[in-house]
Amino acid sequence: MIQKIAVLDFGSQYTQVIARRIRECCVYSEIMPYGTKASELKKQGVVGIILSGGPASVLARNSPRPDPKIFDMGVPVLGICYGLQLMGKMLGGEIVSSKQREYGFGRLSFKAGSLLLKGIDSPAQVWNSHGDRIEKLPAGFKAVGVTENSAYALIEDSKRRFYGMQFHPEVVHTPCGMDIIRNFLFGICGCKADWKMSDYVERSVAAIREKVGDKKVILGLSGGVDSSVAAALIHKAIGNQLTCVFVDNGLLRKDERVKVERLFRDNFKIRMKTVRAERLFLSKLKGVKDPERKRKIIGKTFIQVFDKAVKSIGKVDFLAQGTLYPDVIESVSIAGNPASLIKSHHNVGGLPKKMKLKLLEPLRELFKDEVRALGAELGLSKEVLWRHPFPGPGLGVRVVGEIKKSYLDILREADAILMEEMYSSGLYYNLWQAFGVFLPVKTVGVMGDERTYDNVIALRVVESQDAMTADWAHVPHELLAKISNRIINEVKGVNRVVLDISSKPPATIEWE
Ligand code: XMP
Fold it and tell me: According to a count of CB atoms within 10 Å of the terminal CB, is the N or C end of the chain lower?
């Protein structure tokens, strides 16, 4: 049986981060409901248990508790934050309440000797979360690390192999955190580093099969990284029980529909339904200039079209989505509660409720880079896996003001040239995004002997880590000159190209 670490989830925003850290150590872990019975954990071959943090107070009535028998299983237990307090409380210590929960840096001081701290120098920087406090240790425990604010920042009962910490080893602000996790996994639980992404594929495929049975699944394929990987994974699991629906809303990049069809229908042999709804979208957008209204119309129309397409497929039970665990680590805030910074996911809309379908989200535990690794394992190309983000409303928010087919066609051509040059210069993969924006501004130019009066294309090329902030990329002038030249010469209707040199904030990445 595969060695497994169970992460019991008490509701911390970081539970997924803990699981990710364990995967980074090439050890298999599974997030399980906090109340999972000890007998079940034993049956599954769990060799170590991590109690996650969580928003509750152990002093509150009905606060979530694990099965007390987990402490009799003879396997190591590591409690983080709320998990530490649980251990304290359930094993006979005393906890006192503190009303406010704060986050902040701390300095962990300790004497050498704890297996958990092997290879780490004192003092070490840690990221604290101060909630309730341990006032008296349970029997058998001793403090092995202190911080400015806590005499019991790190406690252990090395005989029973129980460990608890007030701080978060899983976040980047605890630089020694990975060492602590490694020490727990390898030094204390005796794990081997033999888990691979291909094992993840196998496990997901089995889990999808079990969940779906002989039912049908639909997935809204956008051609972006997440939905593409989800499609490939689910197809591997259930083949033709999956149908992908691709909506061509007329706001896509040049040749996008054909490329997506080629890859998924022709290459992967995935059942795919393409809906060509350009006319409908454009008619609903006619005369609309306001960006928010445009977004709303596009979103609403998408749901209508998608709903209709699904009904035409017949009886479907599951709606699959490429939802990921949002990227919390890179955007951890230093000042406030880091968890509050999690971005809301653009793609989790009101679809499933409206359609009365069960959700299938096989990428939910994963981070973007893991999804890419998974996609590569499934045979998706670098080009697909490293595509720049493309907004749901598509070119609808890249044609400033009113949307017209003629504007979209011009933008598609100009944007395709920009893409070509980004790829051939090798710059594409160093950028967060590069795209063109159509400005409905006519300016005067001269071509040959003729005066022209045409539109403007703005180039938006940005570098970013997470889209929360972004900088305009310093693209070499020669390359900019080539792009501008090509667009003006090759795209009818454009006689001027400008470069957007605003950063975010105060500007945003998209123009609308
Ligand atoms: P802004 O313009 O807010 O964009 O700086 C930040 C990132 O989000 C993308 N974006 C969207 N993605 N649906 C999406 O799926 C949307 O409605 C949407 N609006 C913006 C944008 O491309 C950038 O990467």
Answer: N
